[in-house]
């Protein structure tokens, strides 16, 4: 990755960490699931508003490291308006970007989430980046249990 691109990505991550998007308790949420990454101590509660199989709104609360906060902030923005199937497909691409083989990475397919591509070089941080998505996965499957990355 080029250094100037890496700097730009870090700037976006810092921005989302300093000023997280969709950071509030959604009182009338249709889905609410808690996620926990014991390796790092990241905790979040994800709220979704659904219309049929479409995600119409998403928000979160919690506290975690910069990577986990930026990841859930970006995710709650990007999944609004997606169907469950579209959100799951995006999760699969995000997962491939952070943990998969180099040749499976498609940065264009993940849009803004590409800023988190750098975590694949830091295995300990991958769970920070994927916690939001595992929690979303549980919420879409309507699992009420709190999820843990361990
Ligand atoms: Zn973390």
In short:
The chain is of the alpha+beta class.
What does this structure look like?
- The model has no long low-confidence stretch (mean pLDDT 92).
- The chain starts with a helix and ends with a strand.
- With 150 residues, it is α+β, with helices and mostly antiparallel strands.
- It contains five helices and four strands.
- It has a single domain (2-142), classed as Sufe protein. Chain: A, CATH 3.90.1010.10.
- Strands 3-2-1-4 form a four-stranded mixed sheet, covered by helices on one side.
- The protein has helices at residues 3-18, 66-78, 84-99, 107-110, 123-140; strands at 31-37, 42-51, 54-63, 147-148.
- Strand 2 and strand 3 form a beta hairpin.
- Helix 1 packs across helix 2 (66-78) and helix 2 packs parallel to helix 5.
- Residues 37, 40, 42, 64-65, 67-68, 128 line the site of zinc ion.
Task: Provide key terms for this protein.
19% strand; globular; Sufe protein. Chain: A; alpha+beta; 150 residues
What's the helix and strand layout?
Blueprint: H1 3-18, E1 31-37, E2 42-51, E3 54-63, H2 66-78, H3 84-99, H4 107-110, H5 123-140, E4 147-148
Parallel strand pairs: 1-4
Antiparallel strand pairs: 1-2, 2-3
The structure holds zinc ion (ZN).
Zinc ion binds at residues 37, 40, 42, 64-65, 67-68, 128.
Cα Rg = 14 Å
Low-confidence parts: none
Strand content: 15-25%
CATH fold naming: Sufe protein. Chain: A
The largest pleated sheet is described as:
4 strands, mixed
Summarize the helix and strand pattern as letters.
HEEEHHHHE
The number of strands is 4
Q: Can you tell me the CATH class?
A: Alpha Beta
Secondary-structure-derived class: alpha+beta
What's the helical proportion of residues? 40-55%
Globular, elongated, flat, extended or rod-shaped: what is the shape? Answer: globular
């Amino acid at each position: 990755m080029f250094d100037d691109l890496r700097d730009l990505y870090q700037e976006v991550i810092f921005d989302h960490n300093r000023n997280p998007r969709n950071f509030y308790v959604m009182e009338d949420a249709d889905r609410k699931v808690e996620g926990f990454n014991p390796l790092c101590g990241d905790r979040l509660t994800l709220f979704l508003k659904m219309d049929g199989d479409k995600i119409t709104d998403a928000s979160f609360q919690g506290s975690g490291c910069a990577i986990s906060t930026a990841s859930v902030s970006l995710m709650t923005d990007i999944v609004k308006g997606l169907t469950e199937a579209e959100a799951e497909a995006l999760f699969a691409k995000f997962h491939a970007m952070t943990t998969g083989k180099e040749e499976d990475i498609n940065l264009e397919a993940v849009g803004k989430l590409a800023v988190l591509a750098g975590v694949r070089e830091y295995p300990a941080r991958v769970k920070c980046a994927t916690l939001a998505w595992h929690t979303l996965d549980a919420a879409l499957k309507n699992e009420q249990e709190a999820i843990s990355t361990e």
